[in-house]
Amino acid sequence: MKKSIALAISLMVSAGLMAQSYEDYVSAGINAAQNDSLKEAEELFEKALKAEPENYRNALVYSNLGKVQLAQGKNRDALESYSRAVEQYPKAPYFLRSRADLYLQLGNYRMAIADYTTLLDLDADNAEAHAYRGYAYSMTRELDKAKADFSATLSKDANNYVALLGMVMIQGKMGHRQEAITQLGLLIERFEDKAELYFVRSELEKENGQAELALFDLDKAIELNPSNVNYVLSRARLYLEQKNGRMARKDFEQAIQLGVPRVSLAEELNKCK
After folding, report:
1. Residue 46: CB partners within 8 Å, gap ≥ 6?
2. 75 contacts 106 by C-beta, under 8 angstroms
3. pTM for the whole structure
4. What average pLDDT does range 166-193 have in this prediction?
5. For residues 203, 206, 208 and 211, what is the CA-based torsion angle, rounded to 10 degrees?
6. Quick one: which of 191, 204, 219, 233 has the most CB atoms within 10 Å?
């Protein structure tokens, strides 16, 4: 009798008749994510959403789904998931912030500005939202708006890194390159492990015709963040301008290893004689 019961249960499981519940999928997805089983977590969250598509808790599931997709480099899928969470709760700061940050990462500055503005409508004293909206404004060259946001951040948090860097970047964009270079030197003394500080300074030094200083800063930026393809390409192109084809080719090859299609660099590689 016991064998018959065991066999019946086994057949029910194999036939899918003992389907997991919404809560089971969500709980298992969270556990998988915590154990870095990202693909498994993604599949489990998707099963939860399919099981109960109208559940009021799905915004949190979509948010968690976005996180594991982002961790796998599925940026567009993550953006869709975050957007579904925002659709369900359009005034929830956590969901808005996740989507705004991803828009910023993807270079969609207008949409990032829109989400940060909604956040600030909900909480005018949100220093981080001011800082990141300021950065987005700086990238769209709305420098007065960017400066106002950075100032708002620094009035609440005088040590906010994003706002401090943003103010320096505005100086550079306004043509005050040497002043910006000086300020970057002061920031580097405080945040010496921030690769982007060296990179930003190298860009200003290139504009100032200080190629050797720019190469020095690019070396440091790449030492701190060797997987950043923008840093590697910037150094490659500067080597090329300096007629150092051997070193330029080495960096272009490194960029290809980091995922840049070889065909997109073919013309520059041909110049590395």
Report:
1. 65
2. yes
3. 0.76
4. 93
5. 140
6. 204
Calpha distance 101→183 (Å, rounded): 26
> CB-side exposure of 4: number of CA atoms within 13 Å?
1
Give 104-136 pLDDT, tens digit per residue: 988 899 999 999 999 999 999 999 999 999 999
Residue 38 scores a pLDDT above 90: no
Phi-psi region of 261 (alpha: psi -120 to 50; beta: other; left: phi over 0): beta
Q: Enter the tokens of residue 266.
A: 């073919």
Q: Are 125 and 135 in contact (CB under 8 A)?
A: no
| 76-89 residue pLDDT tens | 999 999 999 999 99
Helix, strand, coil share of the chain (percent; to 5): 75, 0, 25
